[in-house]
Please model this.
Amino acid sequence: MPLDRLSGDYIVLVRKKRKLFAEIARSPAYFHFMLRHSASPRLPPRFARSFNALAKSATIRRAPSFIINVITEKGAEVNMFEVPQDKIDFYRENGFVQFDDVVTPEELEELREAVGDVMAADSERSTGQSPNGAYYKVLNQKVNAWRDSAAVAKFTLHSRFAEIARRLSGADGIRLFHDHALWKMPGDSKPTPWHQDMPYWPMNKPGALSIWLTLDDVDENNGCMMFVPGSHKVGKLAGINLVEPQNLFDYAKGTGIDQTKPVIVRMKAGSATFHHGLTFHYAHANGTDKPRRVLAVIYMPDGTTFSGRQHIVTAGTAFREGDLLKGRMFPVLAKR
Ligand SMILES: O=C(O)CCC(=O)C(=O)O
Model:
């Protein structure tokens, strides 16, 4: 794909010897210039030299939507990610946004296998439910899948998604809160009822958000999501019991949000939505005979403090109310 056919605003990430260098290229011409002349001001000279070499041997291909991979003959990888301003504006106005093809077809296969392995294994680190419980009909969930699998960690910790989250939220830095595999199982499947996420999270301030990356095509038949546009502006309401749900809209009476039409988001496998922790959302039951497979990752702005609320991820840790959520469980994944 010739570079001059590309347009938009890109984040260029260069991974070299496990270090990551990021730069924003406002135009393909600038990216071209970087490739040719190693002109990025943030690249150290030693790296700039190899960057030059990399440019000479690079092949460039464009993934279906917004990822552009530059793969060198030696396997080094440069990824360019478009985060168009209209996506950021849409997220801030509506509390959710869709990105198609956030992974390549090869990555999708890798991810299906990696998350499938974690779901199939018994583990001390990730936590799931018993298949006999009522919650399992809503979600077969495993929290912190990345702690069990380097192959999942590659995606959970990937700066591609965290940088999108950072840009959407406007935060200077983004930390991981946790990931979770969300399988909606076939057979007596229940919808995920309308809820906000923030009431469950032990955080003092809103701002955290999730990516919901689907590994299967999703629609109303197998558990696609719905969102109420603008509902993140209503504030934090009561937490909903996902097994015996209260009606979230009862808590929102008089806000106008109870009259707002939800948006159904059907997606192809490998696509994702990002949603704000206060956005009202719902997922349909799975009426098919296959699991609906999703990897969701929750990101929080760097600086988020612990509210003291009971949560599976902070249970048994030394965090006290008001402490910064940081450390090896909550690494910084993207930074301005
Ligand atoms: O996957 C689902 O069914 C629900 C997901 C959800 O509620 C979330 O990611 O916050």
About this structure: Confidence is low (pLDDT under 50) at residues 1-44, 46-52, 54-78. The domain at 85-335 is CATH 2.60.120.620 (Jelly Rolls). The chain has two domains: 3-82, 85-335. Residues 139, 182, 184, 192, 197, 210, 212, 223, 281, 283, 294, 296 surround 2-oxoglutaric acid (CB under 6 Å).
